[in-house]
Amino acid sequence: MAYLWPIISPPEEYGGEAAVFVDIIYEKLGRGRCTLLELGVGGGHMLSHLTADFECTAVDLSPDMLALSQGLNPGVEHHVGDMRKIRLDQTFDAVLVHDAASYLLTGQDLQETFATAARHLRPGGILMVAPDWVQETFPDGWVYAWDRQQGGIEVKIEEVMVDPDPSDTQVESTYTYTIKKDGKVTVEVDTHLTGLFAINTWTSLMEGAGFSVELRPLPPNEGGYGSWLFIGVAGAN
Ligand SMILES: C[S@@+](CC[C@H](N)C(=O)[O-])C[C@H]1O[C@@H](n2cnc3c(N)ncnc32)[C@H](O)[C@@H]1O
Predict the structure, then answer these.
(1) What distance in angstroms lies between residue 61's CA and the mean position of ligand 1's atoms?
(2) Which residues make beta-bridge pairs with 32?
(3) Is 62 in the pocket of ligand 1 (CB under 6 A)?
(4) What are the beta bridge partners of residue 175?
(5) d(CA 1, CA 57)
(6) Ligand 1 centroid to 187 CA: how many Å?
(7) Whole-angstrom distance, CA of residue 150 vs CA of residue 152
(8) Closest Cα partner for 117 from 83, 79, 78, 89?
(9) What is the DSSP secondary-structure string of 172-236?
(10) CATH 2.20.130.10 spans which residues of the chain?
């Protein structure tokens, strides 16, 4: 269903959040043209707002999503890979894990991803991690509906997000897509499992990977997503 991504969450909706990341990189690293690695780049919508300022490299698990990003960000080096495991033979000034951080389901996933980030940062480089929700702000039972249209396709989306078992670190979002194309209507239902961790878990596991950590609020995007941004400064490793 990757083809729906540019329709239901178009690149222009990422400009506000991207400006926050640009400001933080300039604040922490100065105004040079830094190198940036985005892990879990998806369709590259966020990245499309960063390529003018930074020398970017992108990773995603899904070849279909990565192909969307390659189309949108043609000058960027793209790699299919898992952010928990990938090893590129290169270090960067900054690593970004935007909303893809939400797809990390266990403490071990977090630890492995932070180890990947640490391996790909030069000493003093920064890691920015922006999960959609943290335990402290999670709105159990949240229902959100929106619609978008583009290129003759109309899509209505309803998302229902619940935490079936508060004793584990996973929650479920069920998306119902009503898609109208060429006068024909189809309905697709897709359930995503995402991770939910307390602020203290994010912070302490980042610290365990060698980062000094700072927490800042991230302004909500148009869908109301947006909670906290974890900024880690890499030590000399
Ligand atoms: C919501 S999309 C990201 C959208 C992106 N922020 C954008 O601007 O288009 C989440 C992405 O995370 C990717 N992902 C999930 N788990 C991953 C992992 N372990 N390693 C790499 N990518 C992962 C998925 O394939 C998906 O493309």
Answers:
(1) 7
(2) none
(3) yes
(4) 159, 190
(5) 24
(6) 23
(7) 6
(8) 83
(9) EEEEEEEEEETTEEEEEEEEEEEE---HHHHHHHHHHTTEEEEEEE----TTS---EEEEEEE--
(10) 138-195
DSSP class of residue 124 equals E
Residue type, 235: G
Q: How far is CA 144 from CA 102, 223, 231, in A?
A: 17, 8, 28
Mean pLDDT rounded to a whole number for the chain: 94
Q: At what angle do helices 199-208 and 107-119 cross, to 10 degrees?
A: 40
In three-state secondary structure terms, 121 is: strand
- The neighbour count for residue 143, using CB atoms within 10 Å, is 10
**Nearest ligand 1 atom, CA 40:** 22
Percent of the chain having pLDDT more than 90? 90
Query: Contact 45/38 with Cβ under 8 angstroms?
Result: no
| Residue intervals in the chain for CATH 3.40.50.150 | 2-134+196-234
Tokens describing residue 118:
């640490």
- Distance of alpha carbon 32 from alpha carbon 162, whole angstroms: 43
Which CATH number applies to 2-134+196-234? 3.40.50.150
Distance spanning both ends of the chain, measured CA to CA: 40
> DSSP 3-state assignment of 136?
helix
Predicted confidence (pLDDT) at residue 32 exceeds the cutoff of 90: no
CATH class, range 138-195: mainly beta
10: its two tokens: 């178009």
Q: Looking at residue 226, what is its pLDDT?
A: 60
pTM: 0.96
Distance 102 CA to ligand 1 centre (A): 9
